[in-house]
Structure formats: structure tokens, C-alpha cells
Write a structure and sequence with these properties.
The chain has 6 helices and 8 strands, in the order E-H-E-E-H-E-H-E-H-E-E-H-E-H. By secondary structure, it is an alpha+beta fold. Strands 2-3-1-4 form a 4-stranded antiparallel sheet, sandwiched between helices. The chain has a 4-stranded antiparallel sheet with strand order 6-7-5-8. It is globular.
């Protein structure tokens, strides 16, 4: 059995791609996921699966959402260990004093080294942006709206999918993964 955190990109944000979390839980259960729990109304879920790699599950979930609702939604998946590593590896923890203004931008893949060398997102705000393993940390002291738009930059220049979560959500997802295991 494997436990995954599902990060669905763009669900219930700005009135687009609206999916009720009860419907999402039902869809995931119908796919064979167990211990399905959702967090907030923005496409965060934690599930247990009997077998299969995360990439296979991401593709199945994306296809099921497309089939059911006609939506193109990317699904990024992280294990408890991967989320714990994101939390432990936060290089901005000393300065990020508000979890709603600290962002973790999850990447669908590690960026190509040549593209990264040419289009380093850290250059947008070196004091407030840092790279991790398939994650970009961004501290937004004046709020997310006032911060550099790292996600669109990374998607356009580095050719990977990005979905962002604030630090409060990241730590709650990690706790949900742990709660189900305990």
C-alpha cells in the first residue's frame, strides 16, 4: 500500500474547473483509491493505493477527470517522504514568518539543466526564491499578488507544469499523510 498526496492544478481557482470535493472523493474511490481525504476546496487530496507508480496514478486521475467533467487538469503526486523532504529542505524557513505568504511551487519534473541555466527563476527575486528538488520555494512578504509570478515564468521557460500551495496547505497535507499511516 502506498499513500500519496494529490495536487490537482487549477481546481476551484477563480471560478474555473469547479469540482466539488465530495465528487472528487467519489471519483478517486471509484478508481480504486482508499482512505480518500480532501483538504480545502482547491484540489488537494490524500489517498492510499494498492499498487502502481505515481506517474500511472496521475495519468489515470487526469483521464478520469477529463472523462467525467471534460476538464484538462494536471495531477502532481508526492509521497509522504517527498513532502517531508520539501518541508525539511525549506531554505527560507528563517525568514518566512507567515505560512499563507510562503509558497511551495511543485514541478511536474526536474527542469532541464540547459533551460534552467538560461532561465533561472531565482533571478526574479534572489532573496525570496530558492530551488529544491521538483519544488521552488517562494517567500512573498508583501502577499502573493505583489510577488513575482514564478509559476507562469517556469511553465513558459522551463517547460514543466507548476502547481503552487501555500505553506499552511503543504504542512496540512503532510500531516494528513502521516495521520492515515498512524
Amino acid at each position: 500500500m502506498t499513500r500519496y498526496a494529490l495536487l490537482l492544478r487549477g481546481i476551484n481557482v477563480g471560478g474555473r474547473a469547479t469540482i466539488a470535493m465530495a465528487d472528487l472523493r467519489a471519483l478517486l474511490t471509484g478508481l480504486g483509491c482508499t482512505e480518500v481525504r480532501t483538504l480545502l476546496q482547491s484540489g488537494n487530496a490524500v489517498v492510499t493505493v494498492a499498487r502502481g507508480r505515481s506517474a500511472q496514478w496521475a495519468a489515470r486521475i487526469e483521464q478520469a477527470i477529463s472523462d467525467r467533467w471534460g476538464l484538462t487538469v494536471r495531477c502532481l503526486i508526492r509521497t509522504a517522504e517527498e513532502l517531508d523532504a520539501v518541508i525539511a529542505g525549506n531554505p527560507l524557513a528563517e525568514v518566512a514568518t507567515n505560512g499563507s505568504r510562503m509558497m511551495a511551487l511543485f514541478l511536474s519534473a526536474s527542469p532541464d539543466a540547459d533551460l534552467l541555466a538560461t532561465h533561472d527563476p531565482v533571478a526574479l527575486s534572489p532573496e525570496q526564491i530558492s530551488l529544491g528538488d521538483r519544488v521552488i520555494y517562494q517567500w512573498c512578504p508583501d502577499g502573493v499578488q505583489a510577488a513575482p509570478q514564478v509559476g507562469p515564468f517556469v511553465e513558459r521557460k522551463l517547460k514543466v507544469t507548476v502547481t503552487a500551495r501555500n505553506w499552511n496547505t503543504v504542512t496540512k497535507l503532510a500531516a494528513l499523510l502521516t495521520d492515515a499511516v498512524a
